[in-house]
Design a protein that fits this description.
This protein has a seven-stranded mixed beta sheet with strand order 6-5-4-7-8-10-9. The chain has a three-stranded antiparallel beta sheet with strand order 1-2-3. 34% of the residues lie in helices and 22% in strands. The protein has a single domain, classed as Rossmann fold (3-Layer(aba) Sandwich), CATH 3.40.50. Helix 7 packs across helix 10. The protein has 232 residues and is an alpha/beta fold. A hairpin with a 5-residue loop joins strand 2 and strand 3. The chain starts with 7 loop residues before the first strand and ends in a 5-residue tail after the last strand. It contains ten helices and ten strands.
Length: 232
């Protein structure tokens, strides 16, 4: 399943537009979440801002894409629209976290639902396990893009970058999600106390800024997009 018209990309304007009590609670706490609705009547949450969704929908056709951090599965489905193949990796045990915010979003049954939904995509390969173990097993210089959205700590982002570096083609791009919650989004979608504390633990921006000059970083939503460069 690849065709755009087989998916409905829906911006969640009101809590009433969603389909379950669990998600209704999430939308109330974090307004602005988007969803991908599937032909089987189910849906996958898109933890992306609208500019990021537009960017992914308009990626060139035929790319090989590696996603580190499947999460809610929405980005996986979006990336698969035009891709030749998407390999997505996750540990799939976020429901065990001590993080209160993610405890609200993840239950074991929800992960099962996400995995079952991703089986609808014939160009999407799901791999379970720690990225630092799984990624090195992949083919070198195979991927056109690597989307990093897993462990958001400085060391976690660095590990995912280093392990996937050789897997990316020399002219490929890295996409780092949650690089920065910029001022426009802070005004329109203010964080609650829990989210603010979570962002304080993120090391995405610190890592990217150490490796790239500002003029080398393309900002799309809260993501940073950079071209692969030689590691010194």
């Amino acid at each position: 399943m690849k065709d755009v018209d087989k998916l409905g990309i829906v911006i969640m304007d009101t809590p009433n537009s969603i389909r379950s009590k669990t998600d209704e609670e999430i939308i109330k706490e974090s307004p602005g979440y988007n969803c991908v609705y599937l032909p089987n009547g189910d849906y996958l949450r898109l933890n992306l801002w609208t500019p990021e969704i537009q960017y992914f929908v308009n990626l060139p056709k035929g790319l090989n894409i590696l996603e580190i951090g499947t999460g809610d599965g929405g980005t996986s489905s979006l990336l698969s629209l035009n891709a030749a193949i998407v390999v997505t990796i996750d540990i799939f045990d976020s429901y065990k976290t001590n993080n209160v915010f993610y405890q609200k979003r993840w239950i074991k049954d929800d992960i099962t639902r996400v995995l079952n939904s991703l089986l609808l995509f014939n160009n999407l390969i799901v791999m379970a396990g720690p990225s630092k173990i799984v990624v090195p097993c992949l083919q070198d210089r195979f991927f056109d893009a690597v989307f990093i959205d897993a462990d958001h700590t400085y060391e976690g982002v660095k590990d995912d970058y280093m392990s996937s570096y050789s897997k990316l083609k020399d002219d490929g791009i890295f996409i780092f999600h949650d690089y920065d919650y910029n001022e426009d989004y802070k005004k329109n979608f203010p964080m609650d106390e829990i989210e603010a504390k979570i962002w304080e633990t993120y090391g995405v921006k610190k890592f990217v800024d150490e490796l790239y000059n500002p003029q080398e970083i393309e900002r799309v939503g809260c993501s940073a997009i950079v071209h692969k460069k030689e590691i010194k």
